[in-house]
Write a structure and sequence with these properties.
37% of the residues lie in helices and 17% in strands. The protein contains 16 helices and 14 strands. By secondary structure, it is of the alpha+beta class. The strands form three sheets. Strands 6-14-13-10-7-9-8 form a seven-stranded antiparallel β-sheet, covered by helices on one side. The protein folds into three domains: 6-93; 107-316, no CATH class; 320-427, no CATH class. It holds the Pfam family DUF4123.
Length: 440
């Protein structure tokens, strides 16, 4: 019986570059020592870096001592694929929930015009609540269940604008931090339709005053509205849990969900992820959400019973972080292309904007593949590529530049050696520099 294979499991960290991600390694082996050997062989074959500190345990014993209860069934399901032919599986706890994606959205998103553009503006400082929004926030004059999250940083009129005796409010920060960040913190406010503060939030500036920080708040991305029948303190505790969210790889990020642009992007990304939505909506804690958006407002309402859904862990999962990184990189590379056009106007004589961005993106990918992350270095390599009309990793017929990229040199050393190689190729007439000096 000692030689009969069984399933072992051990917690580990999968390392990639400077990042790590939690993993559970599942091994089909006759004992713990051979399970460790199989992990070593698997790492060598697949060129992976796995760190683990405990001895692999039989699966059921691992469940008793280490496993998150919510992960037991997914891990058990994954382990059924183990066999003599497939002796090791790496289960990624923070990725499995992506398979919970539904085929259709779990939220109904509606975009509604706030006011008729032909509506005449009265002589008063503030406007009456628009008829368009009342059915979404105060149906049948139900004023007890409308709340608003307001970001005090969005207007000089906050928080004094809502610090009144007849309105219930609380800062999402606590204690000394709440006092220290009083003028830039987000606040939870219970908002009756009859309160004058509601008119301030829904009012737009007069013509010619659009860029002034006046007391009319609608166009300032101040926050969002929502409906709930829960107690004020329960809602306060719920939103406080989202101020800082961990990532799947155990970093901590501020989450500016109180910015309506951020929240719209977040909810749109999770439309088909019921467990993620159940976490943010608190099951049935939040009935619906309304976001200001220019001349419109956006309404989100669940079309599935989120209270019947097991909520996901409150964190940014890998698929979300991948989207964040892609968006950040797109913005960074577009900015880099802009900077290059400003620094080297002659570029526009040889290339259109799309070509320049493609070269910048290619150099970014090559650099990251070889451990180069500084934006300035990526910019110089992009300029060198554009100068000679061939991207840096194929500009050299002897592939000497590739050898430098693949070396163990530091970023600055690689930059120095590659610039020197470009100069040599130009002196030999192998490449022609169209742009002149490209040191950046």
């Amino acid at each position: 019986m000692q030689n009969e294979n069984r399933i072992y499991a051990v917690d580990a960290q999968l390392l990639s570059g400077n990042e790590s991600e939690a993993a559970v390694v599942l091994i089909y082996a006759p004992n713990a020592e051979l399970a460790k050997n199989k992990i070593t062989i698997y790492q060598q074959q697949h060129q992976l870096r796995l760190n683990y500190f405990l001895l692999p345990l039989p699966l059921e014993l691992y469940f008793q001592r280490h496993a998150d209860g919510a992960l037991i069934e997914p891990i058990r399901t994954a382990s059924r694929d183990l066999s003599d032919a497939r002796a090791l599986i790496i289960f990624m706890p923070n990725r499995f929930e992506q398979s919970d994606k539904t085929d259709s959205p779990c939220l109904i998103k509606t975009e509604v015009l706030l006011r008729n553009p032909n509506e005449a503006r009265g002589p008063f400082l503030f406007q009456a609540l628009p008829d368009s929004v009342t059915p979404y926030l105060w149906p049948e004059d139900d004023s007890d269940n409308c709340y608003v999250i307001v970001n005090a940083e969005s207007s000089a009129w906050f928080p004094t604008g809502f610090e009144r005796d007849d309105i219930q409010f609380a800062c999402l920060y606590k204690g000394e931090q709440a006092e220290r960040m009083r003028n830039i913190a987000p606040y939870l406010i219970k908002l009756p339709a009859s309160h004058s503060f509601a008119e301030e939030l829904f009012s737009t500036p007069m013509a010619g005053k659009e860029n002034d920080d006046g007391p009319q708040q609608w166009h300032k991305n101040f926050g969002f509205f929502f409906r709930s029948r829960a107690e004020f303190d329960e809602l306060l505790q719920h939103f406080r849990k989202f101020m800082i969210l961990p990532t799947y790889d155990e970093r901590q990020l501020y989450f500016r969900f109180y910015d309506p642009r951020v929240l719209e992007d977040y909810l749109d990304r999770l439309l088909c992820y019921p467990k993620k939505l159940a976490a943010f909506f608190g099951g049935s804690l939040i009935e619906s959400i309304v976001l200001p958006k220019g001349d419109y407002f956006v309404h989100y309402a669940p079309n599935t019973d989120l209270s019947a859904v097991t909520p996901a862990k409150k964190q940014f999962d890998k698929f979300e972080m991948d989207i964040f990184i892609a968006q950040r990189n797109q913005s960074l590379l577009a900015g880099l292309a802009n900077d290059m056009l400003v620094a080297k106007p002659v570029l526009a004589e040889y290339y259109d904007r799309e070509t320049i961005e493609k070269v910048v993106h290619h150099c970014y990918q090559v650099c990251h593949k070889h451990g180069i992350y500084q934006t300035s270095v990526i910019g110089i390599f992009s300029l060198l590529s554009l100068a000679c009309g061939s991207v840096m990793d194929i500009a050299d017929p002897q592939r000497e530049i590739n050898r430098i990229l693949q070396s163990q040199l530091s970023e600055q050393e690689k930059l120095y050696e590659i610039k020197k190689r470009f100069a040599f190729l130009a002196n030999q007439g192998i490449i022609q520099n169209k742009l002149g000096e490209t040191n950046g």
